[in-house]
Amino acid sequence: MDRNMYKVKIKKLSEDASIPAAYYEGDAGLDISSIESLVIHPGKRALVHTGIAIELPKGTEGQIRPRSGYALKNGVTVLNTPGTIDEGYRNELGVILINLGDDDFFIEKGMRIAQLVIKPIVQVSFQLVDELDQSERDTAGFGSSSSHK
């Protein structure tokens, strides 16, 4: 087994559920599919059910990300991008989609609706200090790199 390969346990909560899979070999995002058909009207949001629950390996997190084609062509995206799945979460994965487009967005059962990316996480502790080390950016502030040409 490849040293970067993690085993992720998955449970189907519905017979209509699909196992997340990469569309192309080497893709970072694993496509997640809907187990239901529904319509998301312009300006509205919906929780879309996937019918799967996963058990992430220790030291990892799952991120639910939008599908770029839906974002560009339809104005549909994941509302809380990226949606975070903590390693201890064991319930059904749901995807919160919002339709920012002008037309109804139709979701069919089995349709790929989002991507799951699994990443290692870094545990941190905060150290209260009086001063921070200087950096090139220093105190230039939010959006400061956009003023550089």
Q: State which percent range the strand residues make up.
A: 25-35%
Sheet with the most strands? 4 strands, antiparallel
What is the H/E order? EEEEEEHEEEEE
Write out the CATH superfamily name of one domain.
Deoxyuridine triphosphatase (dUTPase)
Q: What integer is the average pLDDT?
A: 92
Report the span from N to C terminus.
46 Å
CATH topology assignment of one domain: Deoxyuridine 5'-Triphosphate Nucleotidohydrolase, Chain A
Task: Evaluate the radius of gyration.
Answer: 19 Å
Textual characterization of the structure:
By secondary structure, the chain is mainly beta. It has a domain at 36-122: Deoxyuridine 5'-Triphosphate Nucleotidohydrolase, Chain A (Distorted Sandwich). It has one helix at 68-74, and strands at residues 9-12, 30-33, 38-40, 45-49, 52-55, 60-65, 76-78, 83-85, 94-99, 105-107, 112-120. The strands form four sheets. A four-stranded antiparallel β-sheet has the order 2-11-6-8, with no helix packed on it. The chain is globular, with a radius of gyration of 19 Å. The model has no long low-confidence stretch (mean pLDDT 92).
Short structural description:
With 149 residues, this protein is mainly β. It has 1 helix and 11 strands; from the N terminus they run ββββββαβββββ. Helix content is 5%, strand content 34%.
Descriptive terms for the model:
single chain; 149 residues; mainly beta; Deoxyuridine 5'-Triphosphate Nucleotidohydrolase, Chain A; 4-stranded antiparallel sheet; 3-stranded antiparallel sheet; globular
Write the layout of secondary structure elements.
Blueprint: E1 9-12, E2 30-33, E3 38-40, E4 45-49, E5 52-55, E6 60-65, H1 68-74, E7 76-78, E8 83-85, E9 94-99, E10 105-107, E11 112-120
Antiparallel strand pairs: 1-5, 2-11, 3-10, 4-9, 6-8, 6-11, 7-9
